[in-house]
Every structure is written in structure tokens, then in C-alpha cells.
Amino acid sequence: MVTPSEPVQEFFSIGEVCQLTGLKPHVLRYWESQFRFLNPAKNRSGNRVYQRREIDLVLFVKHLLYEEKYTIEGARQKVDEHRKGGDLRAVARGALNLELLDAIEADAKAILAILEPTVAS
Questions:
Q1: Which of 31, 33, 60, 72 could anchor a disulfide with 92, C-beta 3.0 to 4.6 Å?
Q2: Which whole number is the average pLDDT over 36-40?
Q3: Longest dimension (CA), the chain
Q4: CA dihedral 45, 48, 15, 110 (to 10 degrees)
Q5: What are the DSSP calls for 21-65, one per residue?
Q6: pLDDT (average), residues 105-119
Q7: For residue 16, what are the CA distances in angstroms to 13, 22, 38, 69, 117?
Q8: How many CA atoms lie within 13 A of 119 on its CB side?
């Protein structure tokens, strides 16, 4: 849990984004070429630096492509619809919440699988 004395991380490397999203770096780089709104800044060394809002968008794109089975073009259109409707940030946050719930569910199933033999005894 973040306490008031801990700074909130605002910028993330591509490696950190990969850990947070479960994606490979080449996938993120490809998506940058396909989705113009995924355009992380680069630091002085030329490395990508993602902001929190970009991570939300990455997770939204991941949700559209992997969960809702959109094509790249379809996902691009869906994002544009939400952008024009003014609710892109809220929808992207919703995708983050779904990703979190999926992770919690997977963890709970893993814990139950470990505990199952113990409960049966």
C-alpha cells in the first residue's frame, strides 16, 4: 500500500510495462506502430518512458484484442469511438479493473488448488 511518504511512480520503462501488462516488448512496439495514441516519450538515452495513462490504454487495447477478439482495425475504431465520446479514460480504467479481477481470480484458483488436498483430509 502506498503511504504518504512514498513517491508515486509516474513513469515506467518498457520492461516495467511488460511486467505490469503481461505483454512482450515486441508486442508493445508493434502496437505503437498500429495505434497512434500509444506514443510514449523517450528519455535522453532514447528509451521509451510510459506514463500511467498510456499503461491504461495498453491494457484497454489488450482487453479489446485478447478478450473481446477485435482485430487491430476494430480495436482502433473502438478506441476512436470512446475518444470522440469523451469516455476513453473511464473505459480504459475499466479495462484495468477487469485485468485486476482476472488476476485475483487466477490467484484464488491457484490457492484453492493448493488447499484442496488439505481440505479433503
A1: 60
A2: 90
A3: 60
A4: 160
A5: HT--HHHHHHHHHH-TT---EE-TTS-EEEEHHHHHHHHHHHIII
A6: 80
A7: 5, 10, 16, 25, 36
A8: 6
